[in-house]
Specification:
The protein is of the alpha+beta class and 167 residues long. It contains 4 helices and 8 strands, in the order H-E-E-E-E-H-E-E-E-E-H-H. The protein has a single domain, classed as Nucleoside Triphosphate Pyrophosphohydrolase (Alpha-Beta Complex), CATH 3.90.79. Strands 1, 4, 5, 6 and 7 form a 5-stranded mixed sheet that branches. It has a 3-stranded antiparallel sheet with strand order 3-2-8. It is globular.
Amino acid sequence: MSDYIKKIRDKVGQELLLLPSVSAFIQDEAHRVLLAKHRGTGKWVTPGGMVEPSEKPADAVVREVWEETGLLVEPTAIIAVQGGPLFQIDYLHGDRVSYVSTWFRCRVLEGELQREDEELSELKYLSQAETEKLADIAQWAKEHLRRAFDPKEGAYFEAPTWQPPDD
C-alpha cells in the first residue's frame, strides 16, 4: 500500500475509494499471457496496480510490472478503459475499492520473470484455453482477457448509459 493510500485510509478507514489503476497484457513467444496470483484476494489477475498522484498511466504500468515481475515493458496499445461494478474489489482485510482501469498491451524489453512479492504469491504464463478454465480468476481479469485475446480495432469502452434527468 502506497503512503498516499495509507494517509487516505487513516482518514476514511475501509470505506469505498475510487482509484485509477492500470493493468498489463503481456504475452510470451508462445502467445501465453502473464498472470499473477494476488495474495489480497486469492485470485489470478494481470500485473498492474494503482496510478500514483501526478503519475502518467503509461509510467504506472511500466513501474507496476517492474515491481511485481522484474520485467521492463513498453506499453504499445490501450486495450480497454473500464470501471463500474465489475471493478469494485472488497479485499480480504476489509478495504473496499472501485477501480477505473486502463488496460495496456505491453511488450517485454528486458528482464527475467523473477519476482513474487508481498502482493503476489505466484507468476505464470498461461494459454488462452488455460485462462478460460481458471476458477479462481478475478471477474474483471476474465473480462479483460476476453477482449485482449479477441482484439477489435481501437480501445474498448462500454457505451454510456447515463441520461440527464427529466425536468
